[in-house]
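tool_call: predict_structure(chain=1)
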Amino acid sequence: MTLTLDSILTQADAWAAAKVALPRFDIAAVRAQTKTAPEWVHFGAGNIFRGFIGSLNQRLLNAGEAKTGIIACDTFDYDIIDQIYTAHDSLTLNVLLNPDGTTTREVLAGVAEGVKANFADAASKARLVEIFRAPSLKMLSFTITEKGYALKKPDGSYLPVVEADMKEGPAAARHAMAIVCALLFERYGAGQLPMAVVSMDNCSHNGEKLMGAVLEIAKAWKANGFVDDGFIAYLTDESKVAFPWSMIDKITPRPHPMVEESLTKDGIEGMAPIITSKKTFIAPFVNAEKPQYLVVEDKFPNGRPALEKAGVYFCDRDTVNMTEKMKVTTCLNPLHTAMSMYGCLLGYTLICKEMEDADIVRLVRRLGYVEGLPVVVDPKILSPKAFIDEVVNERLPNPFMPDDPRRIATDTSQKVGIRFGETVKSYLATGRDLNELVAIPLAIAGWLRYLLAVNDAGEAMEVSADPLKDELQAKLNGIVWNDPASYKGQIREILANASIFGTDLTKTTLADKVEAYFVKLLGGVGAARALLQAELPA
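tool_result:
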C-alpha cells in the first residue's frame, strides 16, 4: 500500500490487515464542499497540526458533524506542501504510541487541501484570496510556533522582512503575520466578513500575541497609506474579528525509524522521512502520544466547527489563561526544557530513558511539584496535580514514545521566559523567597552550559537550532567547559536580558544562584552529574 487516495480506496482490505483505520466519510464530497464553501484554514502544516488538529476534524467528519475539510497552509517551508501534502493527496498516516507498546494507526483525511502561503506565487495567492473572501469561512488557526508571531529582533528593531512588509504594503506580504493581515484586509474588502483568528501555539497569551502582531502591521500600513481607519476598526471589533486564546498539549516527536520500520514491515511503502530545503525533518506519517488537550476561548463571530464533540474544551478567556499557564509554566513545558538541557549534557537521546535516571527525575519532580505547583492557579476544568501526575508517571516515561531531548532543546531562548520566567515573576509578585528555587536556576544554568556545545563527558555535541544561538554563544566567548577560572562574568549580560527571561534576573537574587551553578558546571567531566546530585540529593 501507499499513502494515496487511490490506495486507500482500492486496497481497503490490505489497510485493514495492517490494522490501519480508514476515513469513514466521502472524501471527494468533503473536498468538493471545501472548495466551494471553505470553513477552516490552518497556518503551520507540520506534525502537531497533522496528527492532532487534523484528527479532530476527522472525528467530526466520521460522525457526520462536519462537511468540510481543513485547508492547510505553510508560511515557512513550502517543500512540506509539495513533498508531503501534494505527494500524498493531503493524507496523513497517524500513529499513536501507547504506553503498553501497541500502536493505533489511522489514515487522516480531515485536511482537504494544502496551499503555500506564498504571495510571490500567483496561483497560491489567488487561492488564498478566494478562500478569505468566502462568507463561509469561520476560522483561521495556527501552529507556527511562538517565533512565528515575532516582528522584532531581541534588540527591539524590526526584522528586515517585517520592515519591508510595512513599507511595501499588503500586495507583496512575506512575513506570516503580514500575510495574515493582508488576507484579513481582503475579508474586510469583501464586506467586513466575520471570522475567528485562533492561535493554537504553545505559548502564553497566544491570542494576544497574534492580535498584537497583526494590529502592529495594520497600523503601519495605515500610516503608510495602504489601509484606512475602517480596517483597524474591523480588526478591533470582536463581533467581526475575534482572536480567541487557547491552550494546546500533545507531544509529537519527530518521525522515528522504529515506526517507519513497523509500517514498512506491514506492507505500507514510501514512509521514509525527508529533510526539506529548510531543514524540516518530516515524514508521510506522524508518531505521537495518545494524550491530547485543546482548550479554546469560545469566541467565534461566524460560528465554528462542533469541536467539543471531538474532545475540545470551550470556555471563557480566564479559564483558558489558567489552563495554559498551568501547563506552560508548571506542569509540562518547564519539565521538558529542564530535562532536555541535562539530557543533552548527559548524552541521552530519548526522553523516556532520561526518566530512568534518578537525578533527572528528582530535577523534574522538584521543578513541577515543589517550585511550580505553589504558584499555579487551578483552572477547575483540569486538575494541575492530576495533569502533572500524568506527565511524570505516564507520559514522559512512555518507553514507546521516541521523543528526543535535542528536539525539545530547539529554540530554547524563545521558551525560557515563559517556562521559567513566569514562575519567577509569580514568586516576585506574591513575595515568595526566590532563594527557595533550586530546579529553575539549575535549568537556566544548564541551558547556558549546554550552549558551550560540549557534553558532560567532554565530547563535542551539536546545539539545536535557535534564533539567538550565534549571538548567545558569542557572549560566552572565552569560557572553557572544564575551567571555572575562565568565567569572567560573561553570562550576566544574558541574565539581564528581560526579553529572554521576562525580567532582568540580575535585579534579583536568582542571578547569583544561576551564576554559581554555571561556574560549577565548568568543572570538567562529570560536573553536570555532580551538580544535580549535590543540589538534589536522594
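agent: The mean pLDDT is 96. Proceeding to next step.
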